[in-house]
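Trying the structure run again after the queue cleared.
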Amino acid sequence: MRRLPLFSAAVILVAAFSTLAAPVYDNLVDVQSVDPTIQVDLRYATADNITGHPLYPPSTPALVRPETAARLAKAQAYLRARHYGLKIWDAYRPLSAQLELWAKTHHGSYVADPEAGNGSLHTWGVAVDVTLVDEQGRDVPMPTKFDEFTSAARLHYEGNDPVILYNLKVLHGAMHAGGFYGLRTEWWHFIALDWKKYSPIREAKKISD
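Done. Tokens:
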């Protein structure tokens, strides 16, 4: 019988445990229950965001639609083959948090008005904010910090740092391979190609622990 490599076996065991232990939400899944190698650092669960205080409880998981989670796993596989990994800064965002972000910024180029058009696709569970880490899980150079609402944060990098340019191209390649497209004004924001199949989720409902 062919033996699995030690790392692969460990990932399978962690994934199985995560699936059993993770809370279950209506219409949403914990990204790490699908691929535990994806890092999560939800900035809105900390004070390290543009509001200066947490918008989510500290134990909040990165939640997305199941199909979006599968797309993220494909992007992660692309990155792992290139000695990188994904880190998620934001995923599903409750409407209450979107309302607070809009009240703080009132800047439609960066934060969607929750009461206009489609609102934020974060509240649909089909959009994510992501960055890259290296094989040791360390952040790599990218154009700006998260939620830096300036022209430097555009999807198409206009700077002259070859390392940042390369890293951004790798991120674009991974998210394209997973079935996402980017937002013109934010290099970290990506939307699932099939988002029109869904509708907003005002508040995620936990159905089991």
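Confidence is low (pLDDT under 50) at residues 1-21. Worth checking whether this holds up in the mutant runs.
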